[in-house]
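The record is kept unedited without comment:

——
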Amino acid sequence: MLTSLYIHVPFCNQICTYCDFHKEMATSQKKKNYVDALCKEISYHQEELVNITTIYIGGGTPSSITNELLSQLLQAISETVNVKNIKEYTIETNPNDISQEFIDTIKKYGVNRVSIGVQSFNLNHLKFLGRSHTVFDITNSVNLLKLNDFNNISIDMMFSLVNQTIEELEYDLVQAVNLDVNHISYYSLILEEKTKLYYLYEQQKISMNSEDLEGLMYNKVINFLTSKGFTHYEISNFSKPSFESIHNKTYWLNLEYLGLGSGAHSQYLNKRFNNPLNVSKYIKNINNDIFDDQPEYEYDALSEEMMLGLRLLKGVNISKINDKYNIQLLRKYSKINYFLNNNILEIVDDNLRF
């Protein structure tokens, strides 16, 4: 049953050094045309969205559109989905985009979770990453959300940054915990093609950290956050009790979700497909009532379920996998026994996990 909806807003006010997500800088008119098309696509899928319990508006940077366009988008969602049934309604934003007007708008339409792209508390690292906010913006945005009764706040952080020291990481960790939020996603800096970071690396203007240093930093992240009451429930995600991301667990548990907007991916009706990456093509298609220009792509459901499920601290449930795919997991993947014997994997309460 379809219970999760993802909506993509592919716009940013500036492009970060490391980011290879589907995004672009655009004119006000193009943003308006896009939101008009997106609202039309949302309405088209109304019958399929009756049982939705989680919504995630990501990007890009959803808060990079005007408050008027954001209101238009949220209004279209509220006219299509029964917001009273939504358990988790998330929007991504930058710290310097959070104003009282922004908060009033998202609160009006039932958004109950805000994910803030913080990345670091070090101004030099923020500048290199292409981030435009300051440390004041970070603390101010979180405090403003709390003043408006938002308690489900997540922040995105990064480690293993270019030339980052252990001491700088430790400082970031302290500052992140001092914000007193209930969810922290902590990602390592990854070298992706078609980014400014990759160009600098190819030109030998920067070097990336060794795997040993990155591993040391990762362990520091885990040890520090778990010592402060966070549960390390997924490779890169940490939460206080009862604040795990419900929507993201849809992906990790290999459940169905529908993605709307340019470049958005879906797993629905036993198919994988995505909307056109080109924003102009997406707008043109929707304006011409073309809603099915979504090429399917092959995927091995069992392999993906194993790969995604093993990202979770709990791992994958062997009995559920056996029943769902009519297999004997430990026989099908005989190498699992090798990993079990070498203490790489373990079975706890019928769950296979690292």
In short: The chain has a mean pLDDT of 95. DSSP finds 14 helices and 14 strands in the chain.
